[in-house]
Design goal:
Layout (H helix, E strand, L loop, with lengths): L4 E3 L3 H10 L2 E3 L6 H17 L6 E9 L3 H21 L22 H5 L4 E3 L1 H15 L1 E7 L19 H19 L1
Parallel strand pairs: 1-2, 2-3, 3-4, 3-5
Helix pairs in contact: 1-2, 5-6
């Protein structure tokens, strides 16, 4: 049968992926420490079930010609998306020490959320970060998502959010022409 990749946002979900799946797809928002814990639980469950373990890293990718361009284009929209996730309990307080300081979504900042979580910058910086994550987790595949208009807090296509068709095509072009070759 075709490989069945299972995603999870919790320890129990990671264990289920180990028992039943052909690969574990990490969630895109947990920090590296939480993701390592989930991957470890997945690998243990896969070993107990006599299944091979295959990890697929899923991450948000904010890419631009420069780190500043990536920040300017995507940070506001991704911050709005992550505030939504926080309001709906998507972050795990066991691994996110900053959550004890946050009482309102407006307390969430880019500095709190981006560190050790989001892949962002120039293609070369993104390649370096992806290599680091894959080395830490033992990934066989990487799945990236480029933020989209749904995450923006302003109207799609506005200059403030960078959500234009041309902007998204430019990101795809950077991925194909510079990020992928930098990973080889």
């Amino acid at each position: 049968h075709p490989p069945i990749w299972l995603a999870a946002w919790s320890l129990e979900g990671a264990r289920r992926a180990g028992r039943l799946g052909d690969a574990f797809v990490t969630d895109p928002i947990q920090n590296l420490a939480a993701t390592k814990t989930f991957v470890r639980a997945y690998r243990e469950a896969a070993a107990e079930a006599g299944r091979p373990a295959d990890v697929v890293l899923m991450r948000e990718l904010l890419i631009g010609e420069t780190r500043q361009e990536a920040f300017d284009r995507y940070s506001a929209g991704l911050l709005a998306q992550y505030r939504y996730y926080w309001q709906n309990g998507a972050f795990n307080a066991d691994y996110e020490t900053w959550m004890a300081q946050v009482n309102d979504a407006r307390d969430l900042t880019w500095a709190l959320l981006a560190q050790d979580r989001v892949i962002w910058g120039s293609p070369e910086e993104c390649a370096e970060q992806l290599r680091h994550w894959c080395a830490e987790l033992g990934c066989s595949h990487v799945q990236v998502t480029v933020p989209h208009p749904r995450a923006a807090h302003a109207a799609p296509g506005s200059a403030k959010t960078g959500w234009t068709r041309a902007g998204q095509l430019a990101a795809i072009q950077l991925i194909g022409e510079r990020l992928v070759p930098a990973l080889r």
